[in-house]
Design a protein that fits this description.
Helices cover 71% and strands 0% of the residues. The protein contains ten helices and no strands. The chain is globular and about 60 Å long.
Length: 202
């Protein structure tokens, strides 16, 4: 049995241990040299309390505890206003809680302003979701042309992500959502919903 271990002081930031263990485990598994890892502390936040709120907020979001998720993610961004991932996840949460809520767009803008240190995948997901949110906003304002244009753009962006990694569940879900809202005449709607179901199933 091969083992990988890492240790630090009890009060130290544990994320450097996560990074070290991930590298060691990939080495044990003989992962190809092309596999790259982001550095967790650098791509999230230097504030450990903000990271804990973000972590707990994402757990709450994944359990559909939207009120709790929103509160935790809001606290994370209050502790570190440059925490792009926390802004992004809060935008997702607000989009599910109250579509069209202005807080969602404020959070998306903040996430984009601070997205420079994010890994490529997270930047791509953020960009695709912002396009999708703008499509939904155009739908609410009955701007059919803008909505369809932005939905098609969001679909292309999510398709590019799953083309790079066919196991990216978050991207498949976003793609399904982009297809699901692409409606029109019965034939267009049927095709969109078929594509959406395939993406959701993936």
């Amino acid at each position: 049995i091969d083992e990988a271990r890492a240790a630090a002081a009890r009060d130290a930031d544990p994320r450097t241990l996560f990074d070290a263990l991930a590298r060691d485990l990939l080495n044990l598994a003989n992962a190809p040299a092309s596999v790259t890892l982001g550095r967790l502390a650098e791509t999230t936040t230097s504030n450990v309390e903000a990271y804990r709120d973000y972590r707990d907020g994402v757990r709450a979001l994944n359990r559909w505890q939207l009120g709790r998720a929103d509160s935790l993610l809001a606290r994370a961004t209050a502790l570190d206003s440059t925490f792009a991932l926390a802004h992004y996840k809060r935008a997702l949460t607000r989009g599910w809680r109250d579509p069209g809520d202005s807080v969602q767009y404020v959070a998306l803008d903040a996430a984009m302003r601070h997205a420079g240190r994010l890994p490529e995948r997270e930047r791509a997901l953020l960009d695709a979701y912002r396009t999708l949110a703008r499509a939904f906003d155009a739908q609410r304002h009955t701007d059919t042309t803008a909505s369809r244009t932005r939905l098609a753009e969001a679909q292309r962006k999510y398709e590019a992500i799953v083309a790079r990694d066919s196991g990216d569940a978050e991207a498949w879900y976003g793609l399904g959502d982009a297809y699901r809202h692409d409606q029109g005449d019965p034939q267009r709607t049927a095709l969109s919903w078929t594509r959406a179901l395939r993406a959701f199933n993936r």
